[in-house]
Design brief:
By secondary structure, the chain is α+β, with helices and mostly antiparallel strands. The chain has a single domain, classed as Gcn5-related N-acetyltransferase (GNAT) (Aminopeptidase). Helix content is 29%, strand content 27%. The protein contains 5 helices and 10 strands. Strands 1, 2, 3, 4, 5, 6, 7 and 8 form an 8-stranded mixed β-sheet that branches. Strand 7 and strand 8 form a beta hairpin. Helix 3 packs antiparallel against helix 5. The longest helix has 19 residues. The protein starts with a strand and ends with a strand.
Length: 207
Amino acid sequence: MQFHFITKDNEHLFQPELEQFFRARHVVYAEELGWVPRSPDWLEYDQFDTGAAAYLVVLDGNELVAGSRFIPTHLPHLLSEVFPNSCGIRPMVRDAAVVEWTRGFIIPSRRGRESIRIMASACAAVMEYALAQGYRQVGGIQDTKWIPLWKKMEWSIHVHGEPVDIDGRPWLPIYFDVTEAAMLAARALARIEGPLLGSTATEQQAA
C-alpha cells in the first residue's frame, strides 16, 4: 500500500487520487450512512474542506482503499462547529499544535478481516505525519469501536466529554498524544517496517 498526505501545496500532483477520495467519501457518508445529502456530482465535500485541510489517501496500486482529513484545531473544525457542547470533561481544544482527525473511511470492499491492518497502517502514517509537522496531539470526534485498537497500541486516550450519539452509535471527543512510541506501536501492529509516507509499505512476514 502507498500512503500520501495531500495539501494545497501538492494537490496538483494528486488530482485523480483526490477525486477518488471525495467520491469514496460520498459512497460512505451520503449513500451508505446517509449523514449528508447525495450530491449530483457524486463527490462529498463540507465546509471544512478548505485550503487548510490535509488529506490522507491510502492506495493499493491505483485503487483508493481508505482516507481521512486533518484540520488544525485553532481553525473552525468539525468538533468546534458541529459539536460545540461535546467537551464537558475537558475544554474544547483550540491549538495550532493539535490537529483534528475526521471523515475517516475504509471502502466497503476492503472491510472485514482487512480492517484492522488497514486502520493500524493508517494510524502509523498519521503519527508519522503529525511528528513531521510538529503536532502535539491528534484527535476529535471518534467512533468508540476503535478504542480496543488504540488500547492495543497503548496510545494515550484523552477523553474530553461524554458520548455523543451519532446514528445510534456512541462517539467521543478524544485526543491522542503524538509520540514516536505511538508511531512504532502502530507500525508493529500493522507489521510494517520503516517510513510510510510517499512510499510503498514493506510488510514483515508473519512468523
